[in-house]
Amino acid sequence: MADHDRVHDRGNGHGNGNGHGQGCSSDHDGSTDRACERASERDALRKGVPAPNVVRAPTGAPPASPAAPAAPAPYNAPAPPAHPGAGTDTGSIAAAGPGPNASGTSGWRAAVSRTRRGGHALRAAISAGLVAAIALTVLFVPLLFPLDEQAVHLADKLRAPSLEHPFGTDDVGRDLLLRCVYGLRVSLLVGVVAALAATVIGTAVGALAGALGGWADRLVMRLVDVFSSVPHLLLGIFIVAMFRPGVWPVVISVGLTHWLSTARIVRAELLSLRTRPYVEAAISGGASRLRVAVRHLLPAVLPQAGLAAVLMVPHAIWHESALSFLGLGLPSHEASLGAMVQSARSSLLAGDWWPTLFPGLLIIIPTLAIAGLAGAWRERINPRRRSELTL
């Protein structure tokens, strides 16, 4: 009876919050310890508290020593759940797949990428079609419809656009459609030839600066900076003023004022190529500078130089039109878009819009078409720009 009361008191001691150590550590009888542990478990279950982790010793055996601390988990072992049932069900996550936001975002980005690629492809196709149509027009229309520069029809002056004269007539009765085609041919001739000349000059100067380096590079680039400080149009006026009016003085003027950007592009490209491993390997292998330039540097520079030439054509067209507008380009009796716009100013003030509109459109449309074609070429040869379109 005394043992039973003692066990009951120790069990109550644990249930009252004294702990298992205070209620059961003073007696070394095995049966008494087991009874105390059972009482503690009953109290814990009654209060909803997990039973203490007690190591039970066999009857007659000395009390069990405290449990040894668990070995530390490996560094890459998963963390235990914070509470029961907090484990990760990988099967359910794999079955669930990506969330709705991920699929929506990827679909939106794919749609934007397709739209951008489609828009750039459409723009390139339209630009190529316009350039082809303009080239065919300026090649074959003059062969089919020769223009008499001296012909004057005062009875038909300033007629509005009609089936007989789709672009109308000017202030002396000349057909504007035919004169616009001839003026566009002159503008394209000046633009293409001047752009090629400027590209050759700029490539030579940039290659010289990039290949030599050192003081030669610094000297050449300072000269480029000096020429860049003068406006192109002002320098072109100075050059044209030394010659008689005509096509070739305009070509020389535009070619000598538009090579600066090409020189900078070629020089920068060569400076980046000189540090490439294959170029350094060729130099270390005993290859001469000429061989390295011809076999390794020049093929890498040509696409950039060609792109610069195409981008230069619109600039050359605008400068030729500006010089002709100022009266420094072609002679007044020859067809030139800039000169036609200049001579139609008085007609525009009188309300006759067509002598100014159609030559102005034929200056703008070819430049936009060539610029769009050059933009498509730039995206093709520039891997970074092409990767941006696929994002």
UniProtKB/TrEMBL annotation:
Residues 13-22 have a biased composition (Gly residues). One of its GO terms (cellular component) is plasma membrane. GO terms for biological process: transmembrane transport. The chain crosses the membrane at residues 124-145, 186-212, 219-241, 247-266, 297-318, 357-377. The keyword Transport applies. It is a multi-pass membrane protein. Keywords: Cell membrane, Membrane, Transmembrane, Transmembrane helix, Transport. Residues 1-112 are annotated as: Disordered. Residues 1-12, 26-46 have a biased composition (Basic and acidic residues). It comes from the Bacteria. Residues 60-83 have a biased composition (Pro residues). The keyword Transcription does not apply. It is found in: Cell membrane. Residues 184-374 form the ABC transmembrane type-1 domain. CDD domains: TM_PBP2. InterPro entries: BP-dependent_transpt_permease (IPR050366), MetI-like (IPR000515), MetI-like_sf (IPR035906). Belongs to the binding-protein-dependent transport system permease family. This is Peptide/nickel transport system permease protein. It comes from Streptomyces zagrosensis. The lineage of its organism: Bacteria, Bacillati, Actinomycetota, Actinomycetes, Kitasatosporales.
